[in-house]
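Sample A.
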Amino acid sequence: MKIDTISIPEVKVVKSRTFFYKDDQKVLFIDSGLIARTFSSNLDELISKSGAINVYGYGGTGSLSSISLRGTGSAHTNVMWNGFPINSITTGTVDLSLIPASFFNNIRLVYGSSGSLYGSGAFGGSIELDKDVDWSETFVLKGRLEAGSFGNLMGGIELGVGGDKVHYDLSLVSQYSENDFSYNDFEKPGSPVETSKHNSLKNFGLLQKISINLPKSNYLEVAAWYLVKNKEIPMPMGTYGESMQAQADSSLKVFAKWKKLFPKTSLEFKVGYISDNLRYVDKKLDLDGQYVVDSRIFSQQGYFDFNSRFFQFRNLTIDLGGNLALIRADVSSYGNRVKEYRANLIASAKYQLGKIRILGSLRQNFNQFQIPSPLASFGINYKPFRRESWVKLNVSNRYRLPGLNDKYWQPGGNPELLPESGWNINFGAGTELLDPIKSRNKLTFEVDAYSGWINEWIQWIPEVGFWSPVNYKKVWSRGLELGARYSFATESFLLRFSANYSLTFSTVEEINDPELLHKQLRYVPKNIIMNSLTLEYKYIYATVDHKYFGERYTTENNDPFFALDPFHILDITLGYKIEKLLPASFIQIKVKNLLNAEYQMIRSYPMPGRAWYLGLVVGINNKSFKSNK
């Protein structure tokens, strides 16, 4: 069996556990060209443009943004940074607007990811963020600047320097936006035109990473990621007066990783630390120092992870590993400091039998409250033809531990909550119909069908005088995903087109209220379409992105009066590569929401209309110097 490695000077870097055992799962690799074109965007916009994916936010740049994969909730998608989960331990969710897309060059979205590989919460899927080292680039320096509508200004720097032994990478970004866009307030009499107020954004992010090739096939990596965001929160539609609400987020994430490769074995040890700070305030008056609300959340996570891979046998690879997480939260609404530990033992195997790959994994979780049932995953990947084609099948069970807010928030927290649990089955197939080597054309089709259950779904419901979380319902999520990609390339011309469609049914199948049975979950559209066309001729390029969102219900009983209407969004990017002067540079113009559609992702929070942006990237690297000689 071929070992999945990348050769670099003096050491072979073995792929991570989740990457190596991905063959039976649907994985979307975010296109590097898309990352480059959306250099000023955060992860929410990048993922939204990558496929028929439900990403929703509260209106305007930097507003709270979440993802719902395959009809699940915002706490059912894990976000992993170098293998460490960065979901909030208090809410279980991740604000995608906090993550700059330009910080990473390897972004993967795993649909319906295996719980035995990704752990608690991965009902919908997982997002993996990595910054891979390019050892051939001994020097790279890029400056990024973008200005546009609604007072938006963004700047960033990327630096990479090193040699065969040591490589240092730095990414820095800063952004400001007034978010003062206009909209029709349909919830007021006469639908007057309003301007979004008290909606400004200020954020800053810094990521540093050092990679070291040590003697005797040893590899060391250390990284630190810091971010801070200050966001004003506007009043929703239909309300009067001015908002005095604001939220400040800051986070520090650090990890160190050591790898050692032996002739038929590899070892990996990782340690990580994550601290998150959040402060939400609401004043009576702008100049008043007194707060109506002053809520503070401070949480810390310490991680230790190890993994060993054995490839002594020709067709069989086995991984054995585990991890330990120590978490602590100081939250004003908890009353007391909270401490918990969570540990896991993990075993995985991959067997190559001709054209078939057979994969399996097991995970056992341990914590001080209860020991959940083991998580198991089984899958196959079959490639029936010489040309690129595949058939995939995966069956797995999942669970999600209650968040700290669910258990300890006062009033209302419920320490007796049961973990969410369920099963999922995914079938996928695809084929490449045209060979790009023979015809310069490449055409690929793929289809995925899935069905999954979530038992003991945790939801906050009104009690007497407060809200409280309960194990509320059982949800059945099932659907169909279709994708097609076509490309044609010559020495001076490139055409690339992709079309994606998702059909999602996510309904309540068990609940105490019979009127809510078989109803679609709130904010889960049944239909999403995403199309993208890119044309390049010599130094000029153009991209057109089209996205369609179907109707979304905002109430549990699916009342059509409160449903959000379907909408189309059209974005256009025009750019010119300044390669004759600076090979790593370009200038571009973006128009978002070209058709000026009026729409909402969350009811009563309008999204911006048509917006223009002018961006410039100026860069040099060691390859640039060679090409100019």
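Sample B, a different protein:
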Amino acid sequence: MNMRRALPNASFFAFTGTPLDKRDRNTYRHFSPPGERYLDAYSIRKAEDDNEIVPVKYASRLAQLQVVGKSLDQLFEDLFNDKTDEEKALLKLKKKYATIETLSKADRRVERIAHDMVEHFNTKIRPNGFKAQIVASDRIRAIKYKEILDRLIGPERSEVVITVNNKDSKEWKEKYRRTREEEKAIKEAFNDPNNPLEFLIVCDKLLTGFDAPIEQVMYLDQRLKEHTLLQAIARTNRTYPRKEFGLVVDYVGVGRELAEALAIFEKEDLEGIFGVDDIKKELANLDFWHKKTLSFIDKIDLARGRPEDILQKCMEILKPEDVRADFDVAFRSMARSMDILMPDPVVDPYLKDFKFLGFIREGAKNLYRDERLSLEDCSKKVEDLIHAHIKETGIESILEPISITAPNFREKLEIKGGSKAKASHVEYAIRQTINEKIATDPAFYGSLKERLEEIIEEDKKDRKDEARLLLNLMELGREEKKREAYANSLGLEGAKEFSLFGLLLPFRKFIFSDSEEDHVAFTKRVIESIKERRVIDWTEKEDIQREMRKEVKRLLRGKGFDEYDIERLTLEILNLARIHFKDY
């Protein structure tokens, strides 16, 4: 206030992630001009759209423990049914004054919640390699959770981080007081995917300012309010590989009170934050994307025909790149919903179709060599489910990609189905080889690519003979093996020297007077001129490469190449030299 009095005409700026709009605390009143709210705002929804954070989902567990109205009596009986009648009478008298906080701290309740957390974590979170934070109502409950987890899963998988005061017991000081370095080590261990520490148990610490992208779930057993709630759940929204969402699991009824607790914020500030009906919405999302993904293959009778024939029909539908891209968007959306909901029985009606869709997606990835379809970007839980299904079907070999240079190429090709399916596998095996190796021999693989496109184009015009298409593609595939033998017959040292020979092939008639012998001799002379000038790490030394370019140009000019071709060929020859003759 002193600053405002001293500078009555100054503008004041506030940087905040959780602006308040309450009578006693009001960010807008103190910092915003009349009629304005923000100079600039970056909302939760915008951050999600920019992939700066992941959306946070909400799930309620053990609803019977969220004490309201009539359920108080039932909870009382559940918690104290082992007491005598006299003890119960006394407790009933005390119950009149009981609050939700006092009852919710009962040891049996904590025990039940701890078991539920472990079961939830082991089935939904741990399979994907993520970790968890438990927010207890107070320090006593935090320590209780630690003791129970030690018994259930072992002491190395959880740590409790709480404030310990000088007035606390000696036992607490010895067990739970942490130095700054010790607390830092715990945080680092938690963020390490290879460290067994999976649960951080807190009540007042690490709820704000603690960055742990590997944390996916927060088990909430404390009534956080207002901006503290927003800041706490943000522990789960950091991006991390394969992390599609963060999750808040509610054991105290925060979801039910969410609207009231967050009423201090503007509606647009909260757009994108979780809601109490997230699971219901997610099931609706799953149903929508299930239908959308199936629609790509709805014209195929999936109940008739051999698996390899059904797979081939699906592959034909997914051959266009834009169709595969649209299919992938739909499948990933379905997979995201499955990941959120599994292993809840609500997904059971969708499970069979989901496995099959994952099966054909894997087939399309392998056939078309389309790494966008890799399951590595899906959650580990989804990936394991699809791969287990593929293994169970016993037709893994049908999905495996094949290489035209593999010694068992023909054997692997034979199990791919009919001529049409085999032709597709050969075509894309050739395409893969071309894409992988064209930089090592542009002339040979460029020519191979042109001939492949000619064969495919001819087949589009006349689709009557699938066997002929397969035969043509097989013959083209053999060119890869013939190249090495041809290079050796010319006296060239394999594919490396043959790649430079191929660069000069278009000039055979005009420069080498159609003499193969002269062509080979000049190729070897160029290669020797490069090898003679090599030194250690020559590809990193511009002065050495300059000398090489100078000598190559001299040789080309002396042979009669024109200046335009000399510049282009020198560049291409040095590019190949960096690949094939890098080692000194």
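Observation for Sample B: The longest strand covers residues 215-220.
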